[in-house]
Design a protein that fits this description.
About 55% of the residues lie in helices and about 10% in strands. It has three domains: about 150 residues, Rossmann fold (3-Layer(aba) Sandwich), CATH 3.40.50.300; about 60 residues, Helicase, Ruva Protein, domain 3, CATH 1.10.8.60; about 120 residues, Zinc Finger, Delta Prime, domain 3. It has 18 helices and five strands. The protein is α/β, with parallel strands linked by helices. Strand 2, helix 3 and strand 3 form a beta-alpha-beta unit.
């Protein structure tokens, strides 16, 4: 259904998306919202609302508003399960009235977590009468929405389906996984698509310009501690938190010898920060991210880190990292001592490469 809507551009007046795979719900909702709002050049007809702190009456009032200088108003209500009742109004009457006569110039989309509705699609296929009773027992307004408007359910993927999803996801972000390694992802991370997606993003960041991952790459990145890993180390250094950075590096080395991974990723990180120094005048975030060699979503934290560390310290960092790498490869010094000294120098404003 979602594919048909996106292809045709024919949006229903009301659509509900829900299910156990919240990542897929969010991603399809974003695709629908972006497609529906693409023709609005004014920016005045597209609203993303949060159900928490809002009433259904307020949402429907916005939905009834005519678009300004556009053919369509787009309203996306996230966390719709948190919508509250309108004081002095029978919300069920309000929803029923809107469903009977929805605004044809509005695309109103609800996304929600409705555990009691999970499995509705399978129930309909197995026993429509049982499904009908299940729908009528749902919390308002979902009992009305599921009975009277289009909806998309995203049931949890079975473990045997996740391998194909991972391979497709990897291709979408530009990397290729070796045969058989999707099972390694699941063994290390479980079956949460959101967690698996984050691990793929980490792997892509680690690979840099490479497009094919090796088994060793995956073993190195996937399933590392969520608290003590090279990405958290990078964040701590960007925040100039020397204590936290030292703790993470120590815990990483206690688990496995990861000194060269640390050097490689921090060198890449500081190289990107160094490139950002001359990119502040640009306004195109996609272009900034491309030149800096980082994903667009990471730009905010990167600019914050650049402001906090300062251009001089960022430039010195590259020399410090080269020196640490050379020492680790050629000297007999204790590895942990070399890493601790390196981190202290990176975050010491008076340090000289």
């Amino acid at each position: 259904m979602i594919g048909d809507i996106l292809k045709s551009g024919n949006f229903p007046p009301i659509l509900l998306l829900f299910g156990e795979e919240d990542l897929l719900v969010d991603e399809d909702a974003h695709r629908l919202f972006d497609r529906a709002s693409a023709l609005d050049t004014t920016g005045m007809n597209c609203d993303v609302l949060d159900g928490e702190g809002m009433t259904l009456d307020a949402v429907l009032s916005i939905a009834r508003s005519f678009p300004m200088m556009s053919d369509r108003r787009v309203v996306w209500v996230r966390h719709a399960e948190k919508l509250s009742a309108s004081k002095g109004r029978k919300d069920s009457d309000v929803m029923q009235q809107y469903l009977k006569d929805p605004s044809l110039t509005t695309f109103l989309m609800f996304t929600a977590s409705i555990p009691t509705a999970n499995g509705i699609g399978a129930a309909i296929a197995k026993s429509p009468a049982t499904a009908k009773r299940k729908i009528s027992a749902l919390k308002y307004p979902f009992n009305l929405l599921l009975a009277s408007s289009p909806y998309g359910e995203y049931p949890r993927l079975r473990e045997q389906q996740i391998g194909a999803w991972l391979a497709k996801r990897a291709t979408q972000i530009g990397i290729k996984l070796p045969p058989g390694t999707t099972e390694l992802f699941v063994a290390k991370m479980g079956t949460s698509l959101r967690d698996l997606s984050m691990e793929l993003e980490k792997l892509a960041t680690y690979l840099g310009s490479r497009t094919e991952a090796s088994v060793e790459d995956i073993q190195l990145i996937v399933g590392s501690s969520r608290e003590f890993n090279v990405f958290e180390l990078q964040k701590s250094i960007g925040r100039a938190d020397v204590v936290r950075a030292m703790t993470i590096a120590t815990r990483m080395m206690e688990t496995d010898r990861q000194e060269m991974l640390i050097i490689t990723m921090l060198t890449r990180y500081f190289t990107s920060l160094f490139r950002l120094i001359d990119l502040r005048s640009l306004t195109d975030r996609t272009e900034i991210a491309r030149v800096a060699g980082m994903p667009p979503f990471a730009l905010g934290d990167a600019f914050d880190a650049l402001d906090r560390l300062g251009p001089d310290r960022v430039e010195r960092a590259l020399g410090i990292l080269r020196s640490a790498e050379s020492t680790l490869k050629s000297a007999s010094k204790d590895t942990m001592t070399v890493l601790q000294t390196m981190i202290f120098q990176l975050l010491d404003s008076s340090s000289k490469a």
